[in-house]
Amino acid sequence: MLKFWREFKAFAVSGNVLDLALGFLIGAAFAKLVESLANNVLMQLVAAVFGKPDFTQLSFSLNGARIKYGAFLTDTINFMILAFVMFAVIKLVVQIGIGQARSFVARDCPYCITPIPTESLVCKQCGRQLVDELPSVEKAQQRLAEQRARRGIALPRRRQTTTTESARE
User: Fold this and answer.
1) Taking the CA atoms of the chain, what radius of gyration do you get in angstroms?
2) What mean pLDDT comes out for the span 97-107?
3) DSSP H helical segments within 15-161, as ranges?
4) pTM
5) What are residue 60's phi and psi, to 5 degrees?
6) For 8-53, how does the pLDDT look when each residue is reduced to its tens digit (9 = 90+)?
7) Which of 20, 54, 61, 141 keeps 20 to 30 A from 164, CA to CA?
8) 78 with 86: CB under 8 angstroms?
């Protein structure tokens, strides 16, 4: 039982589970935001054009059964608006470059079997060289600058302080 508990604890606090939980929470908050934009802004624009806030009251009777085509029409319009907003937001995120900062494709280091980004030249875990020949520092810095430029938005880098500057503070 103790071994089972340790395995469960390792699983529950592993990076993948925490990433999944964080992604779920952010996704839920994002869904509320998109739904609010669709219902409170865009659907109200539809209401302004057609003169009704929604079409749920539209119906007709057929052999004593009430067919509520207005509810279906409202749900269809809501879906189309939500789908369009999601498409526009995802398109904007890709255009800005957010999400490219993290490499979602990884490979395993052949020496220590640790997952590493595909662009790695040296394994951060075992320190072994993963390419036949390492580039010069200038070429490596140029490669890094090109990768950052492709990402779109770059956060400002913190200025590194020297030991004399930190001693003064």
Assistant:
1) 27
2) 59
3) 15-37, 43-50, 69-96, 137-151
4) 0.43
5) -145, 160
6) 877 776 667 777 777 788 888 888 887 888 778 877 887 788 777 6
7) 141
8) no
